[in-house]
Write the structure tokens for this entry.
Amino acid sequence: MRKPALHFWQIWNMCFGFFGIQVGFGLQNANVSRIFQTLGADIDAIPILWIAAPLTGLLVQPIVGYMSDRTWGRLGRRRPYFLYGALATTAALLIMPNSPVLWIAAGMLWIMDASINVTMEPFRAFVGDMLPHRQRTKGFAMQSFFIGVGAVIASAMPWVLTNWFSISNVANPGIVPPSVKLAFYLGAVFLLGSVLWTVVSTKEYSPEQLREFEAAVKTANRDVGVGDEAKPAPDASRFFRYGGILFAVSGLITFFIAQRSLEKELFVLSVGGVVFGLMLLAAGWLRRRGRADNPFSEIIDDLFAMPRTMKQLAVVQFFSWFALFAMWIYTTAAVTAHHYGTSDPSSLLYNQGADQVGVLFALYNGVAALAAFAIPVLATKTSRKTAHIVCLLCGAAGLVSILVISDPSLLWISMIGVGVAWAAILSIPYAILSGVLPGKKMGIYMGIFNFFIVIPQLTAASILGVLVRRLFEGEAIYALALGGVSLGLAALATLFVEDRAGAGCDDGSAMPVLETGH
């Protein structure tokens, strides 16, 4: 029993909720650093304030993935999480721009990002649930299209409100400008409306149907010799060994940082290593005592039992998302200081530069929306790996060129390359990954895959502030150039990814369930 191909509008409806999610996510990415600076944050403190975003993803996504794999009710398997996460995100969007002090804004970022993650995580697994392998590149590309369109609207909204509707983009010191506040209110409306559209218009397959589809895929894979099933989890002794080493090494590094009174941001990685070491020790203790039948143990087991292709993609994701986080954190500070010559958040010139960043973010997301249609074509004519390498190199050139271009009116050239890379990052790794995951664990593995988005962001939050302050002498523009180098490394790592379940044909025609060659 093969999973049927869906027609264009069915794929459109099931992905439409991503439009609203990205409106909220885009408002967050383009404006939160601006809000933090408005409320008095120092430039080198911004990365540590952003730590809420990756931490919430690290905690929330695997838990939501685990739970959604086991959910079935009146709304289905994934849709309850779409709905309840969207309601919470809507509330956070309404509150965030009204934060009276910095610590409240930082807390609201935490809540907003947790809510976005609850909504977003099941959407990745949703494509795996609903589409056959031969359509998944198209499905994830459709998500990229909606991500691009939503982010265009979100990023440009403050500028549009100011220049088209004469809503002020400046305010008294310590007050978020009216244009930014109104943008967040409108974003809440877009988010809730689009997610509701997907919830109402899409019907999910039942657990019984999904089991039948997966059985058919396994049979076809055996016939053509394709497959990369997850491996058994390690025994308790390996958990103790890895956990003990990580705990000891990270503990020593933490002690060294404290003794030398080094930057507090460095504790993010060292303390994170201590905590993860303790988690591995706890997982080993539970397994040794026969008490591993629980969500915590299953998530840790699945982390160690990842398919080989997933491990290879993890390296690509690390360098890709380090670059993206550097861009989201520092573009406003870099452009306003390097191209507009000011770091005063209450000045007109600064706010003009910040609005320009919003337009640039809108541009790269618009390019991503268009590139989303070209990526499946390029992947079919070459391979998904080749397509990804080309796109990542475009992004590397784009970020590095921001340092070279002196005229801010020409920065749109840089954003073309960034947009091409963004479209690929949002689609190709997930299309490759979904072909090697067991269907019954699609949600939890998509959640675990988010670790390799979060860990580079934590790394960036930990070291970028130190690098900008000590190595780059406060010049945020060099953090963007470093991001370009990181995208180049991601392209290099893509060469080593095994994509044995390439989707060959994305038009829905009759093809084997999985094909070799890509």
